[in-house]
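Model: Ready when you are.
Researcher: Fold this.
Model:
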Amino acid sequence: MKKTELYQQLKSNPKNVRFEHLCRIAEQFGFTGRGGKGSHRIYSKAGVRELLNFQDVEGMAKPYR
């Protein structure tokens, strides 16, 4: 699946995303896992100041607004 299709899929339904799927998508967009504690995973990318912080809640990614 193309990056634009993945992005649109996530954007259209952000409350129903599997945690592992979201982590794989971050890696496809060039982010690198930096670890995390407990149910959290943190990703970074050169040239991007913000970190991605994902939380696993029973296999689903916790949605934030």
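Researcher: Now this one.
Model:
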Amino acid sequence: MAYPAGFKYTKEHEWVELANDIGRVGITDYAQRQLGDAVFLELPDIGARLKQGEPFGTIESVKAVSELYAPVSGEVVEVNQAAKTAPESVNARPHETWLIAIRLNSPAETAALLDAAQYADLVK
């Protein structure tokens, strides 16, 4: 599996795609394969304040319920309603299906995240 080079990754298997001070967040292909078929997403409301490394929601699959962790700190500015309605989209297109968009408090936090090669090494 090739992980998109433009993304940053967490050791908890979330990705963030950065554009200026906004980061779109999703789960990696590795995460969705471990979870199995996603059946429900619990995501924060717009305006919620998140801290890097802390849970921001859950993803429920046929196997388990897993927490989702914020890769960066900031304010939720958008929630992907289509993903909430059709959580199986994270299985079909994990690197295209974002869950939330965060306005970053501190872009420097991204230095603690993994690049695609580091993440691929983590999950091999």
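Researcher: Key takeaway?
Model: The chain has one domain: 7-106.
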